[in-house]
Amino acid sequence: MSDKNEFPVQEKNNGAVQLHGNGLRAGSLIEQSLSRLTESQSTDLMQKAGEEALRLEVKNREQNMDYVLGKKVAEDHIETFEMLEKRGRTTRQTVRSDFKTGAGNMHIESKSGATCFVASAAYENPNHPDVIFLRIFRDNVLNRSPAGRKFINWYWKNGPKLAKFVEKSIFLRVTSKNTIKLIVLFLKKYL
Predict the structure, then answer these.
(1) 75 CB neighbour count, 10 Å cutoff
(2) How far is CA 131 from the centre of its chain?
(3) Contacts with 148 (C-beta within 8 Å, 6 or more apart), sequence order
(4) How is residue 19 annotated by DSSP?
(5) According to the model, what pLDDT value does residue 37 have?
(6) How far, rounded to the nearest angstrom, does the alpha carbon of residue 62 sit from its chain's CA centroid?
């Protein structure tokens, strides 16, 4: 470069351009660049900067609106879930909410009610097809007879304790899972 006083770059003897080590700060580079713009370039740059500032402001407001609406949906979800009957031994409720937030989309799912404690612990998934089958069997078969309701009451009291033992032991989890599979196969085949 021929004019070393005007530009913040320096040429080395080998022709490489040096952009640092000359005492200039980044702010001074921007100031120098801006001072060299023509009036037309300056006007164009100001227009683009104004458009970008407006775009960012609109985006910020949209995210704030999404946040406020998302917060309201989450509060409504919690309020709805709290209103549900949760003491039933054969009733299961699920509340699902999908909504947009300032950070993206959110899905909330809250569940309450009866569950198959031991099967859920053995399968490590309350929504495994065998666990769902057992819940349906409980609701549609066991719940219709006095002996079945008596078993449901016993299981409701003792099932959570049994499930804790199953959760803590790999041996019990595997053994319970295999036993439950056999029971489900038997029930599907003969009932």
Answers:
(1) 10
(2) 25
(3) 138, 141, 142
(4) -
(5) 87
(6) 21
Per residue in 119-144, pLDDT tens? 999 999 888 999 999 988 988 899 89
Give CA–CA dist 58/135, Å, rounded.
Answer: 50
Q: What's the whole-model pTM score? A: 0.48
Check if the beta carbon of residue 80 is closer than 8 Å to that of residue 49: no
**Where do the structural domains in the chain lie, given as residue ranges?**
1-36, 39-114, 115-191
What is the percentage of the chain residues whose pLDDT exceeds 70? 79
Mean pLDDT in residue range 88-113: 75
Are 121 and 176 in contact by the 8 Å Cβ rule? The answer is yes
CA 169 to chain centre: 30
pLDDT at 2: 46
In angstroms, what CA-CA distances link 63 with 69, 70, 76? Answer: 10, 10, 20
Give CA–CA dist 99/93, Å, rounded: 20
